[in-house]
Structures are given as C-alpha cells and as structure tokens.
Amino acid sequence: MARAEPPAAPTLTEVAAAAGVGRATVARTLGGYGSVSPRTREKVLAAAERLGYAQNQLAKSMTTGRTNTIGVVVADVGNPFFAGLLSGVAGAARDRGYDILVISTSESLAAERRAVETLLGKQVDGIIIASAAGRSEAVPHLDGALRRGCPVVLIDRAVDAIDADTVVTDNRAISAAVVSSLIDRGHRRIGFVWGPVTNQPAVDLDDVPAVVAGALWSDGERLLGYTDALRARGVAFDTALVSHSLQTEAQATRAVNAMLELADPPTAIFATEADAVTGALRAIRRRGLRCPEDVSIVGFDDSSWAEVMNPPMTVVAQPMQAMGSAAADAVISRIEGVDGPTVWTELPSALIERGSVADR
C-alpha cells in the first residue's frame, strides 16, 4: 500500500485568500514590518493559525534584513553564573520574538574572535558578550562588528576600548562591603581569592592600579573593592593574602593552603568565584581546620548548595537573570533602531549572611 503524501504546507497566497487581503499585506503582517491596521493584522494572524502556516524564517530575513537571532558569547556555559546569565538572556529574547545562538570560549580571546566571526557569518542581528579581553585591551573584532552594523552589548565585563552598551554588577562596591563586614566582625587578616591573573602582583596599595589595568574588568573591580575597604578601615595590605594564580579549583586550593602556612595566616577568606570557594574549603579541611571557628569564608554567587552546606555559606548574590534580561533588552533596542549614546547599566548585588563567618 502506497504511503500517503503529507499535505502541502499552506502558502502566503493561501493565507492572503483566507484573510481576504493582498499577499503583500500578509507579508508585512507576518514579517513584522510596514504598516498594518490592527483589524487587518488580527484577520491575517487568525487565517495563518487556521491554515497552520509556518513562516519561512529565511524569506523573512531576506525581506526585513533580520534573522531575529542574537549571538551570545560567554566564557563557560557550565559555570552557574554564566548559566544564570543565559537563562535571563533567553527568556527576555524569547518574549520579544528572538532566538539565541550561544558560543563558549573557555576565556580564550582567540576563541572569542573566532566566535564573533562565526556569529557574523550566521547574520545574527546583535551580539551579547562577556569578553575575555582585559579592561584596557584592544578589541578589533568587536569594533569590526559595530562597523558592520551589528549591535554589541558587553555583559559582566566592561572593556574601555569599545563604546558599547554595558550591563554589569556593582563589583567594587559589593566587594568593599564584604571586606568591611569582615573587619566589623574583628578580622584583620583577610585572604582574597582570586585576584587578577598576573606575574607581577601588587606589593603595596600603590601597585594595585597597574595590576587592575591589565585584568578582566570584574576581577579588577573586586580587587579594588577589597583594597578600598582595607584602606578605609586602616587595615594593612599584605600581598601574600591575594591569589593571582590561574583561576581553577586546584589553584585556589594551593593558594589558600599557602596562605594558611603563613606565620600570620588569614582568619577569613573572600572567595570571588564558585571554584575559589570549593578550593578554599578543601584547603581548610585538609589542614584539619573548621569553618567558621578557625577560618571564615564568604563566597560569590548564591545557589541552592550554598544554603544547605554545613555551615550555610555567606555569599554575594549577583542578579544573574536580571543582568541577562537587561542585556537582551539593550541589544534588541539597538537592533530595532533605538539610537543615542551608549548606556551603562550597573545592577546591585546583595550580601546574604549565613553561618560561614564567625566573630574574632
């Protein structure tokens, strides 16, 4: 018995006939361009739904010059922070009729350049990027995207060399608040994991700006917040209490272990990434120390595991989904023709105090 052929997909002409309007009117309505009265729009959409018409996205892009696609470039899609950003981007984009294409770069600037070229080749309408470039580094790949008419929005990390809309959190202010809260509770020896990756760490506070200039923006801002609080409260800066190694869990373990071997070890650790928290806890427990009785810890980014740990972890909670949503709104606004000067959006983080910090 011959297999029945599936029914042919309805065409734009058939939708026009069912709605009693011209084909051009249907194209304008379903393509989202031009002027169509509300009553006509309602008739066309009802006819399209009744016939099961699915618009051909390629045809739409040829007509409007858009693909309704946003490229998103992040360092690590497996990192809970970036996963939260992506969730916010995807939700806001979907609500406004856009899809996203995501590329993970493993903090490689070379991979980031390839990612941007790939996305431009796929004719994305805009790009949201957590750049691996240092705050003062040149970014010709992003300048090139802007020159080609592709809006770029920076997320989580600012880059001084590019004039683009930027969505970040208050890294410097919240880091200063964390360190001040530890000082309020009697801590004077406070380890900082991680500082910016560098072979020339700051020996004193006067050296910090040079370290920050070559760092990722978020890393630099957190170190500045740390030193702001020390300076404001008259607490001595000790370069041995700041980790500048590669930012992996294993390196965090080594860095904190080295701090704990000092003649005057830290009584508190401020760990600015999830892997830094895990590495710090491993170092503390391997030495038979207790948290918070022997060493207090404050982590970065809240999660379900932070609340159920023993003790529950005091953390900085960043508004990850709100950041993603704000970045999506920003890039879509540019895609859809909003002009004007670039916009800096800085969202507040919160210090959530639980049980991993004790008084000294």
Describe the structure.
There is one protein chain. This protein is α/β, with parallel strands linked by helices and 360 residues long. α13 links the parallel β8 and β9. The longest helix has 17 residues. The termini are far apart. α1 packs across α2 and α8 runs parallel beside α10. A six-stranded parallel β-sheet has the order 2-1-3-4-5-10, with helices on both faces. The mean pLDDT is 92. Helices cover 44% and strands 14% of the residues. The protein contains 14 helices and eleven strands.
Question: In short, what is this structure?
Answer:
The protein has 360 residues and is α/β, with parallel strands linked by helices.
- Tally of strands: 11
Summarize the helix and strand pattern as letters.
HHHHEHEHEHEEHEHHHEHEHEHEE
Rg over C-alpha atoms, rounded to the nearest angstrom: 26 Å
Number of helices: 14
Highlighted features:
11 strands; five-stranded mixed β-sheet; 14 helices; single chain; 360 residues
Task: Draw up the topology in text.
Elements: H1 12-19, H2 23-31, H3 38-51, H4 57-64, E1 69-74, H5 80-95, E2 99-104, H6 109-121, E3 126-129, H7 140-147, E4 152-155, E5 165-169, H8 171-184, E6 190-193, H9 208-213, H10 217-233, H11 249-260, E7 268-271, H12 274-286, E8 296-300, H13 304-308, E9 314-317, H14 320-335, E10 344-347, E11 350-352
Parallel strand pairs: 1-2, 1-3, 3-4, 4-5, 5-10, 6-7, 7-8, 8-9
Antiparallel strand pairs: 9-11
Helix pairs in contact: 1-2, 1-3, 2-3, 5-14, 8-10, 11-12
